[in-house]
Each structure stands twice: as structure tokens, then as C-alpha cells.
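Board notes (copied after class):
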Amino acid sequence: MAEHEGTNNGFEPEITVFTCIYCAYMAIDTAGALRINYPANVKLIKLPCTGKTDVRYLMEAFEQGADGVCVVGCPLGNCHHVHGNERGQARVKYTKQWLDDIGLGSDRLEMCFVSGGMGETFANAVREMAERLRELGPSPLK
């Protein structure tokens, strides 16, 4: 992290992560159990399924101070609620377009799909998002 401090004045992004209670949350738990590092400024919000992701929730996370938002669901084709993650993916896609339209930028919203044992994949996705957000800087809504 020290190499970024000169270019971003020590800015560390706050990331809100919406996660399903099945594969995604298990992957996050696996990352913790294996002591896999990911950014500390991650706020987890559990949903029964990413199919319950609502544009309002995503936008509210930004309004409450998130620099970025990540939705983490079960692998496509393997959702515990059959097509829930596909519905979540469609809502994220719609919200990304809306974020571009209002000038906040779609790069601040991400969705990834993991199975329970993919703690490293989750950690990598959040690390990559944090790096992108450091380059973008704090959310204009702050």
C-alpha cells in the first residue's frame, strides 16, 4: 500500500459488498479462515440471494459513503435460487449504466461470482476493485 500513498494522499476506498448467504458468503468466510488478506475497509451486507439486489440498495450504499460497491453471488448456473444471480447481474448491469448516466461512473460497481471454496478469488476481486478505486479517488458523493 505504501507505493500508492504518494499518488492518492493515503486514500483507502470504502467498499460495500452485497453477498448471498450461500456460496458467496462461504467464500468470504473461507478467505478469513485461510487468512487471505483483502482490504480492511470492506462492509459486508448479507442478502438471501443476489436476486434480491435492488438498484435502490446499490445507490443507497453510495449515498451512505461507499466509494465502490461489489455484489458477490453464486457461480452462474449454480444459484441456490435457480436464477437469482442472473437477476442480480441484470440489476447490476442496469445500475452501472445509470451510474455512467449520472456521472458517478460504472467502474465503481462490480459483480463477481464465486463458489464456497474460492476465498482467494473473492479477495483478488476486492483487491482489484480497491486498486481501481484508489485511481478513481473518493466518491464524488462524499
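Comment from the instructor: The radius of gyration is 15 Å. Residues 22-136 form one domain.
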